């Protein structure tokens, strides 16, 4: 996995937009204004994704490449280092899981709008 592949995968998600809301090095991926993934250009060897709290803890216990995300709520956000002990397929699934975690918190109106995209 690398930063370009991760970026392309995030951008392939329905309704995804990318921006630099914090600084010129932190690339944020959002759907309907809600963040689901982050790539840091100064640290191109990892991605930050949202996760169910229990699953986040399990992943940290199982993989050395998965850590609590720095500057994020560590209960829900993990940083995953590329080219370590996490297979690319799992990283793709965790990006999907992150998006699902965000979408499930949408209001009914937001959900209907998202579903109609």
UniProtKB/TrEMBL annotation:
InterPro entries: YjbR, YjbR-like_sf, YjbR/MT2646/Rv2570-like. The keyword Cell membrane does not apply. Coiled coil: none annotated. Keywords: DNA-binding. It holds the Pfam family YjbR. GO terms for molecular function: DNA binding. This is MmcQ/YjbR family DNA-binding protein. It comes from Xylanibacter caecicola.
């Amino acid at each position: 996995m690398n930063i370009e592949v991760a970026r392309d995968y995030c951008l392939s998600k329905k309704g995804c937009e990318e921006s630099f809301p914090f600084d010129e090095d932190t690339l944020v991926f959002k759907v309907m204004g809600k963040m689901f993934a982050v790539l840091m250009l100064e640290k191109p060897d990892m991605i930050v994704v949202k996760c169910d709290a229990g699953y986040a803890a399990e992943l940290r216990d199982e993989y050395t490449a998965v850590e609590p995300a720095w500057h994020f709520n560590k209960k829900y956000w993990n940083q995953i280092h590329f080219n370590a002990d996490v297979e690319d397929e799992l990283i793709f699934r965790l990006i999907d899981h992150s998006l699902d975690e965000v979408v499930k918190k949408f209001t009914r109106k937001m959900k209907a709008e998202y579903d109609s995209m």
